[in-house]
Each structure stands twice: as structure tokens, then as C-alpha cells.
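so my prof wants the structure for this chain in the C-alpha cells format not the other one, which i didnt know existed until like an hour ago. anyway here's the sequence
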Amino acid sequence: MNRRHTTTLLLWLLLAIHLYAAPADSTLMERGSLWKTIGQTAWQNPALHGKAFKSSLTQLYVVADWQKQSEAFVQEKGKGFLLPAAHADTYLRLSEHATVWGHASYLNGKHYDICWNSTSDYDLLQPHILADSVGGDTDFERYVFEGGYATQLKQWLLGAEMLFRADHEYRDIDPRMRGIVNELTIRLGAGREAMGYHWAAALEGNVYKQSNSVDFYRELGVSPEYQMTGLGTEYARFSGDKRRLHYEGGGARLLLDAVPVGERGLYAHLDLNEHRYHRQIIENYTLPLTDLYSQGLNAVVGWKKATGSQMAVYATLDYEKRSGDERIIGTSASTAFPELGVLTMYRNKRLNTSLTALYGNGRWQAVGCAGYRNDNQEYVYPERKLNVSHLYGRLEGQLFWKPADRLLLTCGAEASYFAGAGDELVMPFANMSAASAAKMSHQYEYAKANYTSLSAQVRGDYQLKSIGLFAELGGGYTACSVGEHQTDAHLVFGITF
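here's what i got, hopefully its the right format
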């Protein structure tokens, strides 16, 4: 697999080599500017992605991301990671009306001290995961391939994009978890230019599969694996020695955008999506166990102008509703289990709303954001609740500086604060095991905590005759009111042309 990936990256380089030319400062500033983050939601539509940038740019680079927590903020995600990766990115303007883009990457790293989670893609599949109280480090590989094309035919914009991801996560000591993930996403977009705006719509289809298992090689016995169902509950009948699972699912997304043709005016974005993930046990039989449903809405409304000084104000609303169905399984006479019914036992509603303002002049930008978020989880019986809210603020700044003719520095800094604004916990601690009670107490303490984060980064681009060289260094520190902290580091080396 490593050789295949290396060959793919070399092919990317050979195909692009005829385009070698050092990118201008304006091209680098266009890509790296905070101003461009305003339009990123619209770029999910491939028809509009073709209008994202005025010039072409290809980047080949290696990156290393490192994170360390003194105590796991979320036990299922572990205490940190080391994730080195190689990337190839290209965005080519073939003509005034046609654009092609692509991305390929390979990542091979580690996650540290994961506990209560033996399943890959935790954020996607939680709370329907396989888990144990032992855990440990995991090795992690990821392959990503993306490609898209957009064109303009008179007033019409058309685009298509495909994204493929393959993950392999495993542990080579007991409990030996393994997760193999394949995910394919296809987007088709169209738009029309009218009344000074691009009016666009896109449809996305997604297919997801994961094979998940845990093995034990030691002779001293095994630890139980739990079929988690939400807020520390488990499907007790099929927990213990049922350690081979298969997840499959996917969903659809509708994207609607109204974007000014120029750099001034009102704009709006609406994202409606629905996904379903089915968990089944794979032993000497196949047993459907649970279904996870997710419905989401993302809306952005704002105003921007780039003539003279750069200014923008926009409001964002993110809402997600998750529900977990558990199948009632009857007694088996052989390897066939009758399904007696389905109960919706878990519900989770998440809300995140914010107001953001940006001001700058092309050489520097400043961003201020204030928002509110709420995460409300419920399990029907026995009754369990975890409801936490936060108010938050964020300040971010960026500066472009040319200390020499061929050198461009991009400097940035960010500070944020999340303050608890209310919390509620309902748990039947008297009827819970000591391990489960400790897990939920830990989850509650860190979910309602206050967080203060500071980060900074600097990127240097040096222009040679035919290509550009760049390096980027960043770091961050997060303090948690529980008394723990997190440290982050980010390092990149690459070439541009």
C-alpha cells in the first residue's frame, strides 16, 4: 500500500511539472488570507469552487501535527496524537471559464491512550461504538484522493467532484482493535449568474463502510467489549465476547448558495443533510443491532465588501439532531435471531450559533467572533441526561510581511475562551458499575468545563526562479478549568509552483 501511494504522489508531480513557475505573492496571499475563509462554505458546491481563486497554484508538502493532553478531555479520543503526512494539492485555471482541482495525501501516525473506544471514526458513529475500559495507543493510516472540475457555459456554472477516503486503525497489543474504513462522496453542482449574483445548488451522495474487530492473543484471559448505546449504557445481551462488527451507511446533502459575483454584497448559504449508520454483529451469523440517524442544518447569512478596506459581518447557525434506535432481538433457535421491534432510546441535539466580524486591508486582517453552543443528550430508560452550554468568544489576527524581495511571511495568532453557561446531569449512579460511573463523571466534568486557548503560527515563502519553497511552524496551548491542559504543534515543509 505504501509503494502504491508513493507512486501516485510521483505521478501527480510528473503530470504537473510542465506548469512549474514560482507563484506570485498575490497568489499566496489570496490562498492564505483570512478574507477567503468567508467564502469556504460556498466552495462545497463544485460549480462555485471553480470561481474560488483567480490564479493557479500547486503545492507539494509534508506536515507533522502533534498534540498532547495532560489528561484526556474526551477519553474516547485519547490524550493526543502524532500524525505525519504527505500532501499534493493543485488548483488549475485551465481557462477563464474552466477549472480543475485535486488532492492526494497519505498519513501514517499514532493516537495515544484511547480508552472506552475500539471503533474508528468516533465523531461520526458515537455513541454506537465498540468499547472497553483498557484501551491504549493505536496506529493510524489514511489515504485520501479528491478531484473536481468546473466550467462556465454563458450564464450557467456546472461542476462535479469526487472524494475518497480509506483509513486503517489498529493496535498490536491486547486488546487488538482494528478498524478499516472506506468512504466515497460525490457532489454535483450547478448555478446561474443573474442580477449580479451566482445562484447555485448542489447535491451530495455519500457511502460509508467500516469493518471493526477486537482480538486477544494473551493466555491470561480477555477483557469484555461493550456494545455502547449512549451516555454510558450498553446493549448488555450482546456485550462481552461479541467483538466483530460491520458498519455501513451514508446519506445525502443539499447545498443552496447565493453569492455576489463581485466582492461586495449580501450572501447566504444553506446546508441540509441526513445520514444513517447501521451497526451489525458479524460472528457465525449476521445480527442487525442498532441504527444511528443524523439530520443537520447549517445556515450562513452575511455581508462583505473588499473595495478599499475589507469588511464582513456574518451570522452562522449549526444544528444537528442524532437519534439511536436499538433492535429488540428474540431468542435464537440456531443462528437466526428474530427481530421483535425497534426502540428509539438515545437522542442528542446540538446547537451552535455565532456572529463574526472581519476587518482588514489586504496586508492584515482581524476577526472577532461571539457565540453560544449547547449539547443536550438523553437516554430514555433508565433515564440519563447530560446537557451542557457554553458562551464563547474568539479573536484572530493575520499579517503579511515582506522582509526581502523574494520572501513573504504570513503571521497569525488566535485566542478563544469558552465559558460554561449551564449544565445538568441525571445518572443512576447507584445502579452503575464503578468503571461506568467513573467514565460518566469524567465526561461530565470535562463537558461543562471552561477552556482558554492561545495559538500562533508563521509561514515563510521563498521564491526561486521556477518554484517556491515554504515552511510553516505553529503551536498552541489550551487550559481547562478542571486543572488539565493541552499542547499542540504543527510543522510543514513544501514547494509551490
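also thought this was worth mentioning. The radius of gyration is 24 Å.
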